[in-house]
């Protein structure tokens, strides 16, 4: 009888041990207090999408090492294994630029506002504008920055080496190098078509006043707007301010759209309207604000 009870007790202990092992998570260990500790892959946090929200305040513009002039640098993403891609947004004040540098694994730039210049050693300085994508191959010595009259913002995407290095900084770009003649983007020669052509004024009034549309496109947009004494961005700001003062919402709508394409930000349009409220009158500013909101919500 005693032997039977001992055998029953041993069987019960073994069963409880097996049950505890079965209920313990894979890769886990149970201590004397009955607490299970996860190890290995089971200890990793579940993967999820990460969103970094865009900051509303503009970046603080200041002098920075390896740059000439005022710049605002906003880190966007750090390299996260297994990826080695890092990126940031850089805003250059007019006249600001990087020092000469190279990237061991190359770099991609995406121009988001304004206009700027980029040049590789021994090559021609080239103009870049909103929407342009610049690829610099590994090891190519180069610099990039804003023009003398335009502010420019670009997103820079760069892969880093296993040791974390992604850029090799060199000497500063001299004023003589920066001010050398640039290869400017040449707009296609305007083609005089029928009233159904796709130029701005032709779309707006070509079916009713074809000659006025033709003169507007050929003289105003193809001549005056292309004069180098003012950048397109500055011309947009002047035009927007004038239309606010004159309380011309229909024309203002198209010119705010044009201003955005020329590198003027929403914050700059709102600030222009705020400024003009004290010179052109509150009603004109409120009307302009409604037009601006409509334009930026549509795009």
Short description:
With 299 residues, the chain is α+β, with helices and mostly antiparallel strands. The protein has helices at 2-23, 175-178, 200-205, 210-221, 232-246, 249-261, 266-280, 282-298, and strands at 29-30, 36-37, 62-63, 67-68, 70-77, 85-92, 97-98, 101-102, 107-120, 125-129, 133-136, 142-146, 152-159, 168-169, 182-183.
Give a written overview of the molecule.
This protein is an alpha+beta fold and 299 residues long. Among the domains are: 62-183, Jelly Rolls, CATH 2.60.120; 222-298, AhpD-like (Up-down Bundle), CATH 1.20.1290.10. Helix content is 35%, strand content 23%. It contains 8 helices and 15 strands. It has helices spanning 2-23, 175-178, 200-205, 210-221, 232-246, 249-261, 266-280, 282-298; strands spanning 29-30, 36-37, 62-63, 67-68, 70-77, 85-92, 97-98, 101-102, 107-120, 125-129, 133-136, 142-146, 152-159, 168-169, 182-183. Strands 3, 5, 6, 9, 10, 11, 12, 13 and 15 form a 9-stranded mixed sheet that branches. It has a two-stranded antiparallel sheet with strand order 1-2. A two-stranded antiparallel sheet has the order 4-7. Strand 9 and strand 10 (125-129) form a beta hairpin. Helix 5 (232-246) packs parallel to helix 7 (266-280), helix 6 crosses helix 8 (282-298) and helix 7 (266-280) runs antiparallel to helix 8 (282-298). It is globular and about 65 Å long. The N and C termini lie far apart (89 Å). Mean pLDDT is 80; it is low at 8-43 and 187-197.
């Amino acid at each position: 009888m005693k032997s039977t009870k001992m055998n029953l007790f041993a069987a019960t202990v073994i069963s409880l041990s097996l049950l505890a092992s079965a209920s313990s998570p894979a890769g886990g260990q149970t201590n004397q207090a009955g607490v299970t500790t996860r190890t290995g892959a089971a200890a990793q946090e579940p993967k999820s999408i990460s969103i970094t929200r865009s900051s509303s305040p503009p970046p603080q513009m200041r002098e920075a090492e390896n740059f000439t002039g005022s710049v605002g640098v906003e880190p966007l993403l750090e390299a996260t294994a297994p990826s080695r891609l890092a990126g940031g947004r850089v805003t250059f004040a007019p006249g600001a630029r990087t020092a000469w540098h190279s990237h061991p694994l190359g770099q991609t730039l995406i121009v988001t506002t304004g206009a700027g210049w980029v040049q590789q050693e021994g090559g021609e300085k080239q103009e870049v504008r909103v929407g342009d994508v610049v690829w610099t191959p590994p090891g190519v010595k180069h610099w990039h920055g804003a023009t003398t009259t335009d502010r420019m913002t670009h997103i820079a995407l760069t892969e880093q080496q296993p040791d974390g290095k992604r850029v090799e900084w060199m000497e500063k770009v001299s004023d003589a190098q920066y001010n050398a003649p640039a290869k400017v983007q040449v707009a296609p020669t305007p083609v005089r078509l029928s009233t159904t052509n796709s130029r701005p004024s032709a779309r707006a009034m070509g079916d009713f006043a074809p000659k006025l549309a033709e003169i507007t496109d050929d003289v105003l947009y193809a001549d005056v707007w292309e004069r180098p004494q003012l950048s397109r961005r500055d011309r947009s700001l002047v035009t927007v301010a004038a239309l606010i003062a004159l309380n011309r919402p229909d024309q203002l709508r198209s010119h705010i759209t044009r201003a955005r394409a020329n590198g003027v930000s929403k914050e700059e349009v709102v600030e222009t309207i705020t400024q003009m409220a004290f010179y052109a009158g509150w009603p004109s500013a409120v009307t302009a604000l409604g037009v601006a909101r409509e334009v930026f919500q549509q795009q």
